[in-house]
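Why do we care about 3D structure at all? Because function follows from shape, and shape follows, mostly, from sequence. That is the central idea of this module. The next example makes it concrete: a single protein chain, its amino acid sequence, and then its structure expressed as tokens.
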Amino acid sequence: MNSILIAILEILIAVGLIGFWIYFFLVENKNPEKSKVYLGFERSFPVPDLGWATPSLIIAAIGLLSEQPFGIFFTITSGSALLFLGLLDISFNIQNGGYTTNIGDTIMNLFINLVCIIFGPLFMIFAWGQL
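And the structure:
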């Protein structure tokens, strides 16, 4: 896998995270059918998602595209952030029926979780191989 493809994936995931939070605050956050536990849990994610994972993904992509060493470092850190966030979300969903609600929520949860636990390690392995 080459660094241009990894950078494109990093940008797509960063844009996806931003898009998810726009959707969440405009739609999900206002849905009276959502439980307080779910909303409380989700509301704890914007800071790590938008304050660390997203900037790390963007910085990583810029570094890879410009062939700067910081691209490798931030690819590893963003991969680690994705893996952590994905595992945390999976743990919550398993314990709180996040995969058994309606089909739309289940598909969205599975998609987000799979992106995190697939691309997080992939980014780390790729970057480690570049050292």
